[in-house]
Amino acid sequence: MTHSFTTYFTRNIFFLFLLVTFHEVALGQCPDAPLSDDRGIFSINNIDTDPVSSDGDSKPTAVNNIPLKVCPQQPLTLKDLVNGGQSRSFEITQNATVLSTSSAIPVPNTTNSISTTAPATPGIYFIKSFGSNNGTGYYACQVIQVVDLEKPKYTVKMCDVAGTSQKEVTIVLLDDPSNKLIDSYTYSVTPLGSVPRGTTRSGIASYPYSIPLTINSGFLSYDLEISGTNKVGGCVKSDSRTLTTVSTPLPPLLGEITLGSATNASEVTLNTFATVDIEHKIWMRDPAVQSTYNTSGTPALTYTPTATAFAIKNLTVPDPTKQYCFKVNAFDICNAKTVESTNEICTTPLTGNTKQGGNVIIWSVAQSNLPGNTFRSYDVFKVDASGTESLLRNITSIGNNLYDDTDVICGEEYTYKVVTNYQSKSTSNLLKIKNTSIPPTPLGKVGSTVIGGQSIRVTSLEKEGKDLPTFTAFNYYRANSINGNYTKVHSDASAFWDDTSVNPSAQQYCFYMTWTGGCGESQPSSKICPIFAQMQGSSMIWSPESSFTDPITEYKIYRINPSTGLPINTSGSGLPYTSTKNSLNLSTLNIPEAEGQTIYLAIEGYPTSYPPTTLSNYVEYQRPSLALSAQAFTPNGDGLNDTFYIQGRFIKATKMSIFDRWGNLISFIENTNYQNNPQLGWDGTSSNGNKVPAGSYAFQVQVEDLSGNIITKEGSIVVVY
Q1: pTM of whole model > 0.90?
Q2: Which residue(s) pair with 705 in the sheet?
Q3: Is 407 strand, coil or helix?
């Protein structure tokens, strides 16, 4: 009984459901045929000697699942090769899990083949063949990959063989993704005008891949043709060029150089004249510190021209404000030697600033001893908004590298460039300057101080708003660390401002001030950082950065009442303490024990411009409690050394555990009011009230100080009678 295509699809729809539900087909892998009807066989583009058979049996390494590469919309001839096949059809899909669709193309029994085209969009697709033979369905599948082939990527060199008329040609196929889409290459090297005789190379497994050729001919020039194709043969991309023997490259030549681009101030554009297919290295030096090039190091750029002897190369310099010089070397690949450039050229970094009524621009002085590039002059240009250049001045003196432009308007931005004229031009970066007729000068003396331990006051000590021309406002900038980024946090007409959003005891802050006038904002003042003090163990340390424009020459450390901010004077305590350093070990002072465990301190800094002074945040210092114990006692009731107890200062409570030599707890004493009963301790009795024998006993004591800190002490005590 003969099955039609519809009968085949209907018979297998249930198994198709199971296949889709329980077997996830990997991307690029043909789906299995239901009921193992995988006996189909077909050819693509009449390559009957290498047909597609079966469905790959879910093996990723099967030939069916290794994609055949075809071009977008490439003509395809699909031929069913099953003898006696009926109800033949083909389909091309992207969905591997669909075994048949309404888009299947019937195959005429008279030809067994159809003509169609590959999909237009690059990607992975599946060609599937369906049919029946003697009442049994058959199926076969092949994965294809639609690719846009590119021209082969390669380098080539041709060298004379010494003492002969032979030439050696080496083609290197590069490790490029586009090359890996090519199944085979056809190449030929023939004298100019001759008919190419192509040689094919296929099965290349890894790149780069070298193809050496020997030519027994004495012609000067040759045609190279090379093409890449896919296995099916529909995609072919070719490249060709004329080869000449390169035994000694022409000396490279440097042309114009330009510093800076629209997106990268460090980019250098360098025009080079070089020899095709020869490796070139561009070397860079800093003329301020290097008189020669370090050609044993890393070049600024390595490149091999492939299309033209004239090329514009882009590279970057470490610091665009510094001058750098360049030369280029070529490598003679046939004779393994370096050919150096005939000239050097250097960049022209351009900087500038504003002054009252004008702009001043300054550029790096040209190098006077460059090989092949003698200094001629400087051209100074002003560039308007449309890009039109106006020559301001031509300067012929090499040492005259400054221009004062007085034709400016307040608040208007100007663009400048300078061209250093050697034999080749060196064009500077474009410099933009917004000028002011009366430029806002930075504020002179500014200062900062902590107010009440909770806020920071920043103030201008030199200027009031009325003293500043066209004054608009003072601007206050803050950073949340010594090296942090500054952000504008306040602006008004007052010459001082209290920053209440900070926590001066938690971290260091730094500030600077500017002022805004009719022509913009001034440059920043000096950066100032109020004194930030903190504890490290028993040492008080504070930041060395100045909280005034003038440096701090002396510090005084006070004990302070945190509620009122007023100093507390304690006779004989060593406070206030005067220091020129930035730390103080508080344990060296003699603060009376009666003053308590917790004390508060603040620092007052005295600048060279005193008065005024500056205050730090408040620092809390908890003096360590002291807990000592005897090593032996005599609990014999004679009133002398009858009790083992803890002695110390700033102690609130103690817990004492006594253990015999086997580790058994024999006594526990808790003193919850040490201040009123400091001698409460162990009297040498066990928990049953009996005196313990003489000997050594282990103890553990937990001490809680007045600040709530817990200290644990362990040791041994000797009972002596």
Answers
A1: no
A2: 651
A3: coil
